[in-house]
Every structure is written in C-alpha cells, then in structure tokens.
Design a protein that fits this description.
Layout: H1 12-20, H2 26-43, H3 50-61, H4 70-85, H5 104-125
Protein name: TfoX/Sxy family protein
Domain TfoX C-terminal: 6-78
Biased composition (Acidic residues): 107-128
Length: 128
C-alpha cells in the first residue's frame, strides 16, 4: 500500500495479493471496501482465509482484525456470499464441474474404514 506505507493488519502476502488484483493504495482499498477486495482476491484464484476479510475491515476502520465486532463479521460474510452468488464461475471452470472438497468427517470415516480393513486383513493373514 503506497498511500502511507503499511496498513494495520495487512502483511506482505496480503499486500501482494491486493496488488495483483489491482488494489495498490489505501484509497483503492477504501473504494473497493473490505468485502469487494476480499472477493477480488478469491476470484483471482488465491485462497484467503476469512482472517484477510477481517484484517481488511480492521485496516479500514483502524482496529486490530480480532477486534472487528461479531455483528460486523456476520454482515460481511453475508455480503461475501451475496457477491459470490451473483458472479459467473471462475474462468477455466465450467459451471457444475467444480466439485467442493469432501467434508472432513467423510474423509475421516473413509480413512478409518480403510485402516480397519487393513488391520482386519493382517489378522486374517495370521500376521500381527
């Protein structure tokens, strides 16, 4: 961020992401808003956590990202979901072909089943 150097909560990785989506100054960040900037970063193919969203809001309001009020966080999440719902799928991905990752519980259950099957096989072979 070149308006006044470094913004509160915005580190080098976040600054690089913002720069790559065309947000180079504090003024440009203010114009985009925390939600707009966050959505731009996600749409560019980066994988930001929600901490970036809160950090950007904190930078714009002058508070630490952990001090962004719960009500404001909830509103920003709704705004992000609404903004993403109105956008076409990212380039290179046809609608309906992007598969969400399996829930952790499903993966854990599959892993446990595989481990039980392997341990059962060992017993059947007479090995310990």
């Amino acid at each position: 961020m070149s308006d006044r150097g470094k913004l509160l909560n915005v580190g080098p990785k976040s600054t690089a992401w913002l720069r790559q989506v065309g947000i180079r100054t504090e003024g440009e960040l203010r114009k985009a808003g925390a939600v707009g900037a966050f959505v731009k970063v996600k749409r560019a193919g980066f994988r930001p956590s929600l901490n970036l969203l809160y950090a950007l809001e904190g930078a714009l309001t002058g508070c630490h990202w952990q001090q962004v009020p719960t009500e404001r966080r909830a509103q920003m999440l709704e705004d992000v979901e609404a903004a993403e719902a109105g956008l076409p799928p990212p380039r290179g991905r046809a609608a309906g072909f992007a598969q969400p990752p399996a829930p952790v519980s499903d993966v854990t259950e599959e892993f446990q089943a595989e481990m039980e099957a392997e341990s059962g096989d060992e017993d059947a072979d007479g090995r310990d």
